[in-house]
């Protein structure tokens, strides 16, 4: 079973929920979750359930202890000061202190194949160029110890969150990708660069790479051997190597390459692909 989770406190999540129920043949089940109806659909031979929580999505710590699923998608808002219209995907986790949900220095389990497939499906569906389509770095909570998961988001302000066009794109993306076993790519761990991983996305467009975890430049001071190993290990598929956004490593170039050499982890710079 795959689970989609939205929050009563999240305007974009409720928008996506409405679109899912309107566009697809979800039915009420006999289940309730936190006092809310649970909806279900069987498609592509996969059981999909739609849950509504009272909590903010970033604070749904270990919700996989209550929802027994093989994969969990949090459909939510994205918020930023820029207010740029965006549709985004990413994995949760904290490279340092957990300031926005999750646990200190804990990363969730990434399925890089699903992330990549959702990212490029959004690109296919969003043909009005109204939104920037991005994969973000690993950030915020919640922390789920055992179940692979991801966030798929509408951003970045109150103007975009209720947008039905965006809600339909995200709903269609979820239902066209999540029920199926995704195509398998080469799972990698990205280090460096911007929060929205623009250089890594460009690289995916011309390769068979799929980025699970990404540690951005602004978190490199916290990246040590322990966190590197966790980012390599917390993946559904074996993480085959590290990709370095070399210019985006700033003053940490030698520190990062030295740690990777000592750990005997294979790595390449983006320009080497």
What does this structure look like?
This protein has 273 residues and is α/β, with parallel strands linked by helices. The protein has two domains: 2-177, AF0625-like (Aminopeptidase); 186-272, Rossmann fold, CATH 3.40.50.10700. The chain has helices at 11-23, 112-125, 164-177, 198-205, 225-233, 253-263; strands spanning 2-7, 27-33, 36-43, 46-53, 71-79, 86-90, 132-135, 149-156, 186-191, 209-215, 241-244, 267-269. The strands form two sheets. The chain has an eight-stranded mixed sheet, covered by helices on one side. β11, α6 and β12 (267-269) form a beta-alpha-beta unit. The mean pLDDT is 97.
Layout of helices and strands:
Blueprint: E1 2-7, H1 11-23, E2 27-33, E3 36-43, E4 46-53, E5 71-79, E6 86-90, H2 112-125, E7 132-135, E8 149-156, H3 164-177, E9 186-191, H4 198-205, E10 209-215, H5 225-233, E11 241-244, H6 253-263, E12 267-269
Give a short overview.
The protein is 25% helix and 27% strand.
What class would the helix/strand composition place it in?
Answer: alpha/beta
Strand content: 25-35%
User: For the record, what is the CATH homologous superfamily label of the largest domain?
Assistant: AF0625-like
Q: Overall 3D geometry?
A: globular
Count of discrete structural domains: 2
Report how far apart the termini are. Answer: 37 Å
What are the segments in which pLDDT stays under 50 over at least 5 consecutive residues? none
């Amino acid at each position: 079973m795959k689970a989609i989770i939205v929050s009563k406190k999240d305007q974009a999540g409720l928008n996506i929920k409405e679109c899912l129920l309107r566009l697809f043949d979800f039915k009420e089940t006999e289940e309730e979750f936190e006092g809310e109806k649970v909806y279900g659909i069987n498609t592509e031979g996969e059981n999909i359930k739609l849950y509504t929580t009272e909590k903010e999505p970033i604070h749904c710590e270990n919700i996989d202890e209550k929802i027994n699923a093989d994969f969990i998608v949090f459909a939510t808002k994205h918020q930023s000061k820029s207010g740029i219209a965006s549709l985004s995907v990413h994995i949760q986790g904290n490279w340092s202190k957990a300031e926005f949900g999750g646990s200190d220095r804990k990363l969730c389990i990434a399925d890089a194949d699903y992330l990549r497939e959702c990212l490029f499906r959004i690109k296919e569906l969003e043909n009005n160029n109204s939104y920037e389509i991005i994969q973000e770095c690993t950030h915020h909570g919640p922390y789920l110890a055992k179940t692979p998961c991801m966030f798929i988001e509408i951003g970045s302000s109150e103007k975009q969150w209720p947008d039905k066009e965006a809600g339909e794109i995200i709903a269609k993306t979820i239902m066209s990708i999540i029920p199926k076993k995704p195509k398998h790519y080469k799972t990698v761990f990205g280090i460096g660069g911007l929060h929205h991983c623009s250089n890594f996305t460009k690289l995916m467009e011309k390769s068979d790479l799929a980025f699970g975890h990404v540690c951005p430049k602004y978190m490199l001071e916290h990246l040590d051997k322990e966190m590197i190993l966790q980012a390599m290990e917390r993946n559904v598929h074996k993480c085959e190597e590290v990709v370095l956004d070399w210019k985006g490593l700033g003053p940490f170039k030698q520190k990062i390459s030295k740690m990777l050499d000592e750990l005997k982890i294979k790595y390449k710079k983006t320009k080497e692909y």
